Amino acid sequence: MVRYRRNFVLGGTFFFTITLRDRSSRILVDYVDALRTVVREAQTRHPFDIDAMVVMPDHIHMVVTLPPGDTNYSGRVRFIKSRFTRAIAASGVALNRNARGEYDLWQRRFWEHTIRDELDMEHHINYVHINPVKHGCVTRAIDWPHSSIHRYIKAGWMTPDWGVDTDDDQTPFGEP
Predict the structure, then answer these.
(1) Which of 13, 92, 96, 123 could pair with 65 as two cysteines, CB 3.0-4.6 Å apart?
(2) CA distances (Å), 143 to each of 5, 70, 84, 136, in order?
(3) pLDDT at 1 over 60
């Protein structure tokens, strides 16, 4: 059995990818309001800051910062996955079940990367915001409605034309 090694940093900043089992699904954007409600509930019950986030049809990318003294990002991811699953199942969405009778919506694990410094943070925030373009959902990052890029533009941290005509080989996105 593979042993996953997670890096637990008190009050750390992390990049996550949380993915549906069915990579052709659109359930996250079809039920984005339910997802937003669940994420807000997670923030209320288990505080954390969302530095950047994008909701794609079949996966979520997030850069989050935990409160000082806290390392439990796995609990927050588990909360979001389970509450979203229960919320949409309760609304009548037919979900597959696995052999044990559990809902089979999400991949069992998630990708985590510990943000090391400001440059690493910038690269991962850029990756979050360019993701809808990378996946061919839109031609401009600003055109994807389910992204924190709108908050960045409103705050003046990015311009509306950010990411347009980007040469991916020259622009730092994600890990090197």
Answers:
(1) 13
(2) 36, 35, 25, 12
(3) no
